[in-house]
Amino acid sequence: MELYRAPVQNGAVLTIEEVGLEQLDVIRELNRAIFDEERIINTFDRDDLMILLARVNGVPVGFKIGYRENSRTFYSAKGGVLPEYRRQGIARQLLYVMMERARQKGYRRFAYDTFPNRHPGMAVLGLTEGFRVTRADYNTFYRDYRLRLEKDL
Ligand SMILES: CC(C)(COP(=O)(O)OP(=O)(O)OC[C@H]1O[C@@H](n2cnc3c(N)ncnc32)[C@H](O)[C@@H]1OP(=O)(O)O)[C@@H](O)C(=O)NCCC(=O)NCCS
Known about the structure:
The structure is a single chain. The chain is 24% helix and 41% strand. The chain is an alpha+beta fold. It has a single domain, classed as Gcn5-related N-acetyltransferase (GNAT) (Aminopeptidase, 3-Layer(aba) Sandwich), CATH 3.40.630.30. The protein has an eight-stranded mixed β-sheet with strand order 1-2-3-4-5-6-8-7, with helices on both faces. The chain is globular and about 40 Å long. The mean pLDDT is 96. It binds coenzyme A. This is GCN5-related N-acetyltransferase. InterPro entries: Acyl_CoA_acyltransferase (IPR016181), GNAT_dom (IPR000182). GO terms for molecular function: acyltransferase activity, transferring groups other than amino-acyl groups.
């Protein structure tokens, strides 16, 4: 289902759609290109699983996956944009669309974790969007510091 459509740079058109697990191959390819890993998220067996796919002129360029954390909070588990399509506002638009869908579903809070040393973009984006840091810890698997950011919907 298409949720967003608007022009970005050079007259190209950005669309954001909600897709189902049948589109996992497209997401897997993007995940590989962006994160250089096979694992997307640990499990897709989640309540209110939401998979957003961003395309520019029909070409898949980014994704964002979220799900119910608890009755109040929607959790964005992973997302990214291909390097050659960055800094055009695509991640920001994916965030807006996911937050709005979560709000429509009755969630009151939106949360995600991020590793600012590895990927500074999502921490900066969240802070500029009014998110607050609600937890900071050291992740032994990734051997790096992790921030949790949250915002009321
Ligand atoms: C982080 C990421 C999703 C941002 O995607 P994007 O489409 O380029 O982001 P946007 O264009 O919407 O950026 C919106 C704002 O976020 C901030 N931002 C984005 N990338 C940034 C970076 N590398 N460094 C600092 N700030 C950044 C800026 O404030 C930017 O606004 P501006 O371009 O007007 O300055 C993308 O760089 C990416 O996929 N990175 C690798 C994977 C990743 O980090 N995933 C998130 C893990 S939690």
